[in-house]
Structure formats: C-alpha cells, structure tokens
Amino acid sequence: MNEFFVHDYSLAPTNVPAVLLGLLLAFLGGHVIAWIYMLTHTGLSYSRSFVNSLIIIPIVVALVMMVLSNNLVTAFGLMAVFAIVRFRNILRDTLDTTYILAVIVIGMACGTMKFATAILGCAVLSFIMLYLWATGFGRRLRYDMIVNLHWSRPLSEMPELRATLERHSTRPILASQRTHEGYQGTDLSYRLLMRDPERTEELLSDLRSLAGVSRVTGMRAEEESEI
Q1: For the whole prediction, is pTM greater than 0.90?
Q2: Which position among 72, 137, 153, 205 has the lowest Cβ density within 10 Å, counted as fewest Cβ atoms?
Q3: Residue 13: exposed, middle, or buried by beta-carbon count in 10 A (0-12, 13-18, 19+)?
Q4: Residue 182 has pLDDT above 80, yes or no
C-alpha cells in the first residue's frame, strides 16, 4: 500500500480528507451557480446539459489543480493533450467537453502516478454524474401542453375561456395572441401545466364545446426544448 500511495506524497503525504472536502466544496459551489442560472435564465436557449456542466466543471478544475500541484511540466502537458483533442474533434455539447476534460485529468493523474488522487477524483465525478442523470437535475417543467385555438368572440368575453383552462391546469399562460386585419377573431396559443396529464382529451373536448372556439389543437411538451 505504501508503494501505491508513494507518488501522491510529493513533499508531503496526500491529505485524503482535504481532497474530498475540496471536491465537495467545488460540487456545492457549482450547484449554487446552477440553481441561480435555472431561476434567472430567460429566452429560448436553455440547455439542461449546460446546467449539468456548471456542476461538473468546478469539480474537474479542482481535480486539475490537485494533479498539477505547482508542476509546470504537468500543466503544459495538460494543455497540449486537451488542445489535441479539441483540434481533432468539434464538440457541440458543453457536457461532452466536460467528459473529455474529466478523462484527460484522470489519465494525467494515473500517468503522473498520483493513483489515490485519480481514484478519489474518478469516484466523486462518477457519483455526481450519476446523480445528475438519475435526478434529472436541470430539467424545467414549467408547462406540459401547448393549446392553440381560434377565438371568434370579443376579447372582453375571454374570462369564460380562461375559467375552462384553469379548471384543467394550474398555470395557463397566454403565449401568443394574433389578430389579422380583415379577419374576424383572434388566434390564441396557451401554455398549460396540466392538473392531470391523462385528461388532455377532456380539456380539448371542453374547449371545442365553448361558443366562439374553433380549430382547437393540442401538443404535449415533456420539458422545455433545448436550442
């Protein structure tokens, strides 16, 4: 066992609790930033994989600093290896880049014979990646159905339509409202978070039965689209 840990010692033995504490703090810090990003993000360019990357990258960077430990030669080696991988492959997903960086750092830890650091880092990264996958962290389910319809009655009578939507959903949000010149009525599009997703057909049937409602269409949305 002494031979196994000897190359992690450098000038002093590896402080295993400090390594685990550093990786844990990096995880918690990334988690806080990811939560803030999820709460404050606006627009259509939301990406769950980017949110997951905000959690994993601090841990990988912490592991990089532990492997480098003020070794300039190892630092240049890391830059060279990552530059080669980045040059040969175009990674369109932030999370893919994170996985590449993670395996590079673990490989460097093994190559510099810092076996304990490699094992601890691999174990912590694997646990966190599985946690993100199993919990679906980063998914934002603000609505699960989109309803489009044509409203031919005056807009002042829309409370009746909204009451029907509220009976079946918790948060009916008017996403778009279009009125065309020389064209009677208004095209409406609602985003709904259903009270019971299995009662979609009942909602559509109730809408079609309302006076002034026509061309009713519904589309299920499991989670926000990633663009």
Answers
A1: no
A2: 72
A3: exposed
A4: no
